Amino acid sequence: MRTTPVPLQMYHRLSLYLNYLKQDSLKDAPYISATAIANELGLNDVLVRKDLAVAGKGGKPKIGYSRSELIADIEMFLGYNDSFEAVLVGVGNLGKALLSHKGFEDCGLKIAVAFDSNPELIGTQYKGKKILSSAKISDLCKRLNISIGILTVPAACAQEACDALVEGGVRAVWNFTPANLKTPESVSVKNEDMSASLAILIKLLTENLEKREPD
Amino acid sequence: MRTTPVPLQMYHRLSLYLNYLKQDSLKDAPYISATAIANELGLNDVLVRKDLAVAGKGGKPKIGYSRSELIADIEMFLGYNDSFEAVLVGVGNLGKALLSHKGFEDCGLKIAVAFDSNPELIGTQYKGKKILSSAKISDLCKRLNISIGILTVPAACAQEACDALVEGGVRAVWNFTPANLKTPESVSVKNEDMSASLAILIKLLTENLEKREPD
DNA sequence: TTAATATCGATATATCTTTATCGATAAATG
DNA sequence: CATTTATCGATAAAGATATATCGATATTAA
Lengths: 215, 215
Known about the structure:
2 copies of one chain form a homodimer. Chain A is of the alpha/beta class. Helices cover 43% and strands 17% of the residues of chain A. In chain A, helix 2 (34-41) packs across helix 3 and helix 6 packs across helix 7. Chain A starts with 7 loop residues before the first helix and ends with a helix. The interface between A and B is large, with 62 and 63 residues.
């Protein structure tokens, strides 16, 4: 079985670096070291250096990396300069939260339209995005050449909506439902499972409690 | 540096198993094999068996594991039987989405109250949860013996809100903002960084596109 | 009752990921 | 101008995680 050539975790970290590097408080710092980033984010400095070696053009001893160059390099590496068209399915609270989220555009993600099956929402707009009937998903995705589908529907409708997206030629699904989606191999799925995250949170918590109150 | 004794990823997977095992379509299946779970979730069967060996009581050759027993074992292992009191800070769309989410209760998470700084929201309720002034965070957390804080405020207020939670004795923070929170060692933080997830999604997507269109 | 089969559980192996070490280098300092 | 210092980059080592192999076992079928 083939595995990922470059660790997915690294992409996660690069995004963290980017976020850190863009911080207001660093606006006047022309250079920054891997050690500093590592300390700030609680990571190992060699790890940071290795990540930056993959995504960036290299730094200078004693000085570190050019902050602006590093930002540009990471954004390039993460594909934030290419633009991807997306649609969102399910305009509930979570859907609205994602539609409101400024910052996706900076990552090259453009939400073109949203879909919902609620007649009261169909035809209206939210944050400047049109809300259309879910019946039109595949047609519209084809017409607009959409590559990403964001799923924020109830779990029970998730597979159906996903199938419509796939039918519409979408190549990646960002799944915010707990459903275990089936897609053809050519369509990637990234799951954002709240329960799974919560499981880890609770684990961290209990681990932590045990540490403090040994018995 | 000490690392996690039991892989965090495992907790993530256990939650997936749980979700799968509770599926309606399996309601009449008394037994289920690690192989079946692995195939369904796209994992290695030995990996699943290893996870289940840690969390469960073991299965029978040729048959598999008792589905109901497995569910109980995993829930026990994940600490879903213990109940944790939580508060949510920031009743925007995302906050509302989380307040609406049924299913946290099944995991032992009880959101006691919510906080916001918007005067129009303060004093109202959402989904049966009272919304109080953010100024009261630490006092109330102390009084109610809250152990988990859920952060769904704008990034700019994140550290401030987090400090109030820590002051209130919270032991774990579920951070839905992109802020890089500073907490004492005794307080765990679980970050849900959208940009970082998106970075991985885009990576999966482009990887996928390259596979299909080699040049 | 015997043979075939699916599965578990344990052990061993491979792979992936992170951390440690060390020489080289650019700036700062005396 | 030599020395010290912080950092990079490469290589090596360690550690963690996932996969493969194999004997044991319970069920099913001949």
